[in-house]
Amino acid sequence: IPNVKIICLVRNPVKRAESHYNHNCRKGREPLEFREAVLREEIRLRGEMQRMLCDERYQSFSYQHFSYVQRGIYVEQIRRYREFFRPEQFLIIKSEEMFTNPVSVFKEVLAFLGLDESIPANMTAANTGNYGRRETGEINFLKATFALHNQLLYEEIGRDLGW
Fold it and tell me: Which long-range contacts (CB under 8 A, 24 or more apart) does 138-143 make?
């Protein structure tokens, strides 16, 4: 599929990590406090990416559920795709933009795909959740963790996402 169109929906990785953690807690999968879960991620994921790359049928429970930081390092994921696809085949959308202006983003997607404009009557948010606030230290730790990765992402896609 050499002319495929790829849409990447990216969320502020700090918010994504928080949401991922909260989801796992709600589902009873995460026994650790947030900071401990993030600090133990590397140990929990050790060897999982290599296993997934070596065996396309391997499904990593640990990677799916405990990759709070790793899955927010979008530049690595996009670079893997760009080994096979041209930059013009990608549409990068900030989820924050989709949340605040869904009609505009939907129109952008339709234009990217070369489809006629047809806006659904109802575009209300789904799967929203309200959670307690994280400590400032935890947020600052995550911001620092993602800072270099975000800068590399901005350079890769030619756009500053403001995270």
Answer: 138/34, 138/35, 138/38, 139/14, 141/35, 141/38, 142/13, 142/14, 142/17, 142/38, 142/69, 143/14
DSSP state of 35: H
Is there a contact between 123 and 102 (Cβ–Cβ < 8 Å)?
yes
DSSP state of 55: -
- According to DSSP, the residues that pair with 90 across neighbouring strands are 6
Q: What is the pLDDT of residues 100-132, one digit of tens each?
A: 999 999 999 999 999 998 887 777 777 666 666
Question: C-alpha angle with apex 118: 112 to 123, nearest 5 degrees?
Answer: 95
Mean pLDDT score across all residues of the chain: 92
Give the pTM. 0.86
Terminal CA-CA length for the chain:
33
Strand (E) or helix (H) holding 92: strand 90-94
Q: Is residue 48 within 8 Å of residue 63, measured between CB atoms?
A: yes
Angle 22-25-26 from CA coordinates, rounded to 5°:
85
Contacts of 52 (CB under 8 A, 6+ apart): 58, 59, 60, 63
Answer whether 110's CB lies under 8 Å from 118's CB.
yes
Polymer length in residues for the chain: 163
